[in-house]
Amino acid sequence: MDMKRYPSDRRRLGVATSLAALTTALVAVPAQAQTTPNVPTAAPQDVPSAAVPDTDREAPAQDNADIVVTGSRIVANGFNAPTPTTVIGEEQIANNAQPNLFNTIQQLPSLQGSTGAATGTFSTSSGTQGLSSFSLRGLQPIRTLTLLDGQRVVGANVTGVPDISMFPQLLVRRVDIVNGGASASYGSDAVGGVVNFITDTRFKGFKANVLGSITTYGDDETALVQAAYGTSLFGDRLHLIVSGEYDHEGGVGPGNYGIDLAGSRNWHRASTLLNTGVTTGPGPQFIYSDFAQPYQYAKYGLINNGPLQGIAFDQNGTPYNFNYGSGGQPLGNGRVSNCFPGNSFCIGGDLSGAPGSSASLKSKLERINGYGRIGFDFAPDNEIYATVNIAQVQTSNQPSPGYNRPNLTVQCSNPFLPQLVRDRCAAANITSFNFGSSNGQLPNQLVQTDRDQYRFVVGAKGKFDLAGTDWTYDAYYQNGTTKVAIDVDRIVLQPRYVAATNAVVLNGAIVCADPAARALGCQPINIFGNFRPSQAALDYIMPQAGPLQRTTLRQHVASLNFSGQPVDLWAGPLSVAFGGEFRREYYRVRGDAYGAGVTPISPNNALYPADPLLNSAQGSNWAAGNYKNGTGKYDVVEGFLEVDLPLFNSDAAGRANLNGAARVTEYSTSGTIWAWKVGGTWNTPIQGLTLRAVTSRDVRAPNLSELFAAPTVTTLPSFNDPFRNVAVQVFQNTVGNPNLRPETARDTELGVVYARPDWLPGLSLSVDYYQIKLSGVVSTLTPDQIVRFCFEGNQAFCGGFRLDGPQGSNFVNVQPFNLASWETSGFNIEASYQWQRPLGLPGSFTIRALGTHVREFLVDAGIAGVAVRDDAGANTGAIPDWKWLATQTYDSGRLTLTVQERWFSDGVFNNNYVVCQNNCPVSTGNFNTVNFNRMKGEFYLDLGAAFNITDGISIYGKVDNVFDNDPTPSPQTNTGLDVNPALYDTLGRIYRAGVRFNF
After folding, report:
1. In the beta sheet, which residues pair with residue 387?
2. Where is the signal peptide (predicted)?
3. What is the pTM of this model?
4. Which of 979, 994, 910 is nearest to 944 (CA)?
5. Among 358, 420, 674, 723, which residue carries the largest CB count within 10 Å?
């Protein structure tokens, strides 16, 4: 593989060239193009969602229209699916006025733990920065199947999850969210449910959308431009559609050192769980506090051990006595009195060197999306088609500033060291000391990702008659490729940094002490103050050819499905769906020579030349971003059968049906596995009242990352060593496991629907209980858990780490296994009411509310000695006890006003924490003792309005987070930013405005 680095603008040029035909077509849209009625996809009365109040207005309904409910493969008029499905229509999407459709869908209460541009910004090596992916029921994105027009989409990450930013969003007519297992109908990954984007495949005319937004703090400036054009030829038999989108989101951050956030945000307080290091009482082990100060390093350097401990250096390199918080005084052994040795913090004092606030709050994101579709009706109700979707998403974020180095050995003879300190060394009879620094004089690192996707689909769908009965078919082949480039700029090569800090005087000049390093360009740096190194020195410790990762993902899918009603029975037609699918998943990833360590390094390699200081075999020379090499693939062959059997249909008993499905799947990696479901609905004799139930066995096969992941290395700069009660730097080594087996889940849903009764036809209500038991979960323990359980005497955990080795050799190994089990249960609630001509005014008023209550989310690691943990209500995660979304919309036909409320309940940091002040029990890795364990929920208010200037032009505006609510602190046990963007809004109030065109 060509490892030559290339600038992002070359990548953009390649995608732009690929999109040229589509964009040319868009520019050439004739002004007289007219909109024609859309093919009806409105949610009918029988769609299993209690909240589709106004979707009948999205398109003119037809009495004989077939309704495809995403919760099932059955195609039938008026079919009731037992699995609850939420439908978000075009009007709701437009009213929410977001630059990315992902932002609208992820607000739904049943979606918990989704990832987007505001999550993952603190990470260097994850590769998920800016990746927009959904997580249903808190089961993580890898257990949610996301489809485009019922078809799979090639992944944008080695986990296999697609990026919603790459979908043709302007053409989306509705989104179906299946809140429950659907593996029997749709295949692997649908354990938590399905999110299916339905596009307008018969769009005619021209439409466009231009949106701009900015936060109240003057950042995250966003510009969105979307356009689509559709037409038909040859007597409405040939259909052409093209669309293009450009979205630029400026992002937020980074801040500065200490507690200085981006803009004028003032909510960061360095909230931390301070570890006393005492597990036997009488007080708690962890103390919650704001303004935690790391005492192992300072912005421009701090001597943190020995007789000179406590001497720091200001920006001019002048030594001074460091201002420890808590009234602390250095003890000469690396600890500080009145402070917290378990994670090396004081409270208050000099916070200027803390790097936590400097991570980006939201990644900068730029996406370009081009889409085209051509379809030909070769016979009535029969079409062959082809689609092409080419997209690029680029992101950048700053995980942390400078280079946090808490354990550098400095020689007293260093010529950059002030004479005063050298004299103190001589008086103390020492030749070196331990030194910690945030290296505020160094440039800040930058992580840039570039995802390019090329997706091609050919297919056929339609109807045919078989023995006097009507059947439908749907066949398609997809060839998808995603290329991902990750580049980390301005990051330190640790061995070279150490060599550059070790300076001596030679022939009257200050040089690097190591002659081998000097021969390869080592230039000394002054780490005692804000002295920016020379460009030659920066090029040596931070070479422009920094860490990189190049990944290629390929997906091939061939699918054929049939649906029909072969026979009429006593209570109605028997509906049947069956089909098969072949799928191949492949990935290949390559890292740079200094990070991967297995790529040959030679003097002839201009980007990564040989260097005796570096570990050429194992790599991991960078401070972060040590990407490794790997490859893997697997094949899937599967077939399914689904049947809907009418049980009875009468005025006295109502109407009931039984729905069942089975799918057999052969994985090349793990063999054969079955999925199934059995459910039914009963439209009771009570008008509008429907009961539904379903139970299913769902499966998820391990993804490419879990099976064949190239080892990834993450630097943990202040990891707590409980054996010596000190903080040390370690590498977390994460590797794949090719012996993993598929996960299996048992999903049970019971629900009641009361929709459109005669006495109040605008009303819809539903309540559904769910329970999911997931076995053989592919999961890992955290490095802290592994070390902690060994420390507490469980020898099974003691062979995979080292904490007391030489600098750069400490590590903790992490690997996934099929040991864990999860169990979650709760309720989904939907309610809506539509009032025509409210108070005599023209138009309609619609109220809609959706809520999810999670009773429990039990995580069992499946390892002896590890306690079960309940994550429901732990607001440091993504699963609050309660989460609600409510909207109120008035639509006069010309003016639309929208009010939206988002709320989630108060919670805790961790349900396994034991709160106590005195007489505390023994604090263990399973049940830590803490003095405080509460985390406030949040309420957000959003307001929007739209006005139709003409029939084809409308202007709109929206304000999100009207009250500019700050996030509640999510306390850390290290130096990270104390915030949880998976639940809380970290950006503040946002103003949006735009204009839409529809001709």
Report:
1. 373, 457
2. 1-33
3. 0.89
4. 994
5. 358
